[in-house]
Amino acid sequence: MAEQLSGSDAPVVVVDVLGGDNGHDVVLTGIDLALAADPRVEVLACGPAQIVDVFASTRPRVQPLHATQNIEMNEHPASAVRAKKDSTIVVGCKAVKEGRAQGFFSAGSTGACLAGATLFIGRIRGISRPALCHVIPSPAGNVVMSDIGANADCKPEWLVQFAQMATVYAEKIVGKEHPSVALLNIGSEDTKGSQFAQECHQVLKDNLPNFAGNAEGGDLVCAKYDVVVTDGFTGNVALKTLEGTSKELLKAVKGVMMSNLATKLGALAMKRGLNGLKTRMSADTYGGAPLLGVNGVCLIGHGNSNPEAIKSGILATARMIEANLVEEIVKVVK
Amino acid sequence: MAEQLSGSDAPVVVVDVLGGDNGHDVVLTGIDLALAADPRVEVLACGPAQIVDVFASTRPRVQPLHATQNIEMNEHPASAVRAKKDSTIVVGCKAVKEGRAQGFFSAGSTGACLAGATLFIGRIRGISRPALCHVIPSPAGNVVMSDIGANADCKPEWLVQFAQMATVYAEKIVGKEHPSVALLNIGSEDTKGSQFAQECHQVLKDNLPNFAGNAEGGDLVCAKYDVVVTDGFTGNVALKTLEGTSKELLKAVKGVMMSNLATKLGALAMKRGLNGLKTRMSADTYGGAPLLGVNGVCLIGHGNSNPEAIKSGILATARMIEANLVEEIVKVVK
After folding, report:
1. Interface test with B, best of A145, A237, A253 (most B CBs within 10 A)
2. What is the ipTM of this complex?
């Protein structure tokens, strides 16, 4: 596993140095922050030799992993990972497959990471489709939603596995005890929803002891359920709606606060409380979206990650490795 | 049309006196507020004789319309409107069909109103499916979304009509000039989304001169497009997510403001600005969700409407009548 580095059982994370919109310097700074924050984590810095060799040379817990190509955000994911065999995403995923690392973190193209991880790390045996998961930021508490976009078209039975995997994540990483699972639907009654949603409801009810029924869009931010499961199309629309609404609303509240001297003074008094709220609403607490169902830990960060977000992503990947997330999923779905 | 009442060309609205969670007194108070606010509007008060006769007797612009039954929120909509022929929803919709009124307003069961209006007012000739529309409250501006729940399962070509009808509503009622239409999807590129979304994209592109491409969940609250079209399942999830997020977030901001004396004083300074924001975010500005595609005006209010919301609903119904909304839709879709 970590024989490349210290030879210990430390978690080894491949970091995609070219991933993200803000350039490799931001990623390298994020790696430094992660190394400083967690004395155990070790990093395979995956990128062009001229960048990663110098960087690794002065850092005992970093090894270089050479990859010359970058997959851009606008490339077609499946074609790009097939065509660019020497891209950071492909080389990084292969390193996980080969056991040189146990986890992969990238702030690059979500689609390319999905395609790369599925093709080159591979699925856990018995998993129909890996699913992308997300911890929904909310003032009321955390909700784990899956799928948030890996599978735009789903079969109802896939959602059973999405729910099982998200339940493991909710338990081992988010710290939920006996997580409840709900299906994202458009009414609380069993018979509500599209044909697809009704079929999902039935198959979830038949297969999951922790299935609690239907959730509605408004429940996502109320933390009424621990896990909310849905197809990747609906999940992606709901997540982006939620994030967009909270961003616009906080911006509008800020606008009110900055409108005159009296409101500015008022805002000063609220600074601490509002910062707390902002932190609770921040998407970065869990470092990104874990792709569950592949045979290795894989976490995808926001494209516009700053060094702090890169740090969070690396540390979150290490936490998933240390929690044996893959083995825990294997236990549940077999 | 209005020969029951003044014999003028005043807009006549049937109001479901038993509709809503708060009892008929709230609805009657709402009617009084509407009559006071708009000197033209006339009302057919639809409910049990012992309630509506006394009410109408002292109000020259109100006529009673007798209906003995009520459809509860938890009843199966299609079965209920078939079984309860003397319910306020069925009797009210029939009065529109018969030309005794031009519009129907209810804060009762959305499903029963949809079923009642479709069965007893009937569709506009050429319309495949009526769709429920909603003006999304946002700090940035208004977006008309359709369908928000009338059709959980859709065919791609239905969305063309949803878009055409919502465009008429956006133009005539919301006051948009040359409204743009976008498809709710999970990526901006043409090839993104589920199989269904891709087919919708193609058929919208082929048929709508004002089609502007894909919108994402985050665009709903940014007013980037004037009309966003989607199937009723996705639309309902997105709308409830948006409403739930804004409610929880404003509650959390309020919590911060009430945390100590200094923050309370600060909140006082912001009161005016925050009230303005709250009004802009309020769902009541357009009185409820219009059902477009039936052969008469039909507006469905929130179940928990207070008298102000009932008033808004009645006035909005009257505005749609005066704008000849049904005729305008007929022109566009034929």
Report:
1. A237
2. 0.92
